[in-house]
Amino acid sequence: MSLLGDLAAAFSYFSVLPVRHTDEPPGDGAIAFLPIVGLVIGALAGLGAYGVWLLVHNEIAAAIVAWVLSIALSGAIHVDGFLDACDGLFAMASPQRRLEIMRDPHHGTYAIVGGAIAGVLWLYALAQIPAVMMPAVLAIVSYFARWGGISVAGTVPNARTERTFRPSTQATLVLAIVTGLLFVSAGAKHGLQLLIGVVLSIAISYALGRFMSRRLGGVVNGDCYGAVIVVTEVALLLTYPALLRLQ
Question: Which of 9, 46, 64, 237 would disulfide-bridge 135, Cβ 3.0–4.6 Å?
Answer without folding.
Answer: 46
